[in-house]
Specification:
Two copies of one chain form a homodimer. The first copy, chain A, is mostly helical. Chain A contains ten helices and three strands; from the N terminus they run ααβααββαααααα. The structure holds a DNA duplex.
Chain lengths: 235, 235
DNA sequence: GTACTATGCACCGTATACAGTGTGTTCAGA
DNA sequence: TCTGAACACACTGTATACGGTGCATAGTAC
């Protein structure tokens, strides 16, 4: 049966993540990290539904730590309660575009503040991440590039020296990770991203807040545009 | 004993909130709403610590629904685990200013999008909120003005037609509510706020996204400045 | 007198049990 | 054959019980 095979593969993926996290102290924390990663990596399909017992059966625990983990996942909007089942939350086309609009202003602020606050070592780190990604793109490693892209944006928020902003940026990043496709898959996009990232770092290095802000906003706006073109072909 | 009196008054305040929310179906949800409101209204003092049993004793429930509520409160950053106790999280001066920076760009985006997306009835509602606040300020009702101010900003986010942004704005609003003082208490500030709100609505009504954005950013920047002046005198 | 160790208590994390509710299925009647 | 009602089962929400860990305090030894 097709359904059973699919269930087996997801169960296997979850078991693997579980091995990775279960060494941590509290098992409720481990469950949270496991399920979170399973959802973000799309091992658990959006829209699929589970009862608390399903999940506790999968991980060999009682319902209590599962409940606690799911409670946090619901708070993160990664799961939703549908009737009396727990569903992996889906993300709509509309939401994708909405998120990009918010992401643009947050990343803009991060870049702006980084241009004012970033220390020379932090700027050096941004340059280093840029180089890493350049190498990764050259070798055509999409997954690696995707990861480095996230690291770049994370570090940009870090360099802004605004911890609240950092948390907000990370929230948004996690949402972006849930999209079914990445803009890296779009023809020529990785190269453009590299140029746009470089423009942001250049503006930061020359202590130009306005320029950095504009460069970051442009970058996200350009990503949004690619996303808009990609949307029809993705589910 | 002074400590006991303080504990009695907080217990009384919580009992009152509990009466208000306990009618809801799940008691874990009711506990969450009760404690959340208690923290935001400063009935539970920042920095004060409780064990799970303390709280379950207060509300006459077992630890289970308390744990679930606290888990969500920790996720909201309203509580933090300190060792094995639950502490009401404190907010630092630095964090206050950081939040204002983020709030500026989010409200700016909300105003910008509202200028593009808001329908005539929505604009009318903004005008109505403006009038209500004008009346409230004239009568010197600070608490009411404070509440209407929040409603204005909430509705601004709603009128942006971006539900993700709406959630983000609300997150930030909740943080602002936790500050020990409000900028409304600053001499002449309520009148200025009214003018600044009016400027935002004017720009939205004349379909001027740039103007609306700038007006909102200016508004928050001006609030931030007042906050900066007020900070030394608040704990 | 001070420092270190041991013992006891308090509290957390997890499991399990139980009650209540909602849903699905089956049977009967029209 | 279709519809409605009733019963049963499954799953959630809350309570309670238990094992383990960490901290505090007290006592003893140096």
């Amino acid at each position: 049966m097709k359904v059973d095979i699919a269930k087996d593969t997801t169960a296997a993926a979850i078991a693997q993540l579980w091995d990775q996290f279960s060494t941590l102290g509290r098992s409720s924390e481990a469950v949270y990290l496991t399920l979170r990663e399973a959802i973000l990596s799309r091992a658990l399909e959006p829209g699929s539904q589970y009862s608390e017992e399903d999940l506790s059966g999968m991980l060999g625990l009682s319902r209590t730590p599962i409940r606690e983990a799911c409670l946090r996942l619901v708070a993160d909007h990664l799961m939703v309660r549908r009737g009396r089942r727990l569903a992996i939350s889906e993300i709509s086309h509309e939401e994708v575009l909405e998120i990009y609009d918010v992401r643009a202003v947050l990343d803009g602020l991060a870049a702006r503040q980084a241009a004012i606050q970033a220390t020379p070592p932090e700027i050096a780190q941004l340059r280093w991440l840029l180089e890493q990604m350049s190498r990764s793109v050259a070798s055509g490693n999409t997954a690696e590039s995707f990861k480095l892209n996230h690291e770049f944006h994370d570090y940009l928020a870090y360099a802004s020296h605004n911890s609240f902003l950092q948390v907000q940026v990370r929230t948004v990043q996690d949402r972006v990770r849930r999209f079914p496709t990445t803009t890296f898959e779009y023809q020529g996009r990785p190269q453009t991203i590299l140029q746009e990232h470089a423009a942001i770092v250049d503006a930061i290095e020359s202590k130009d807040p306005e320029g950095a802000d504009a460069a970051a906003v442009d970058h996200i706006a350009s990503s949004r545009l690619i996303r808009l073109k990609m949307l029809p072909e993705s589910t």
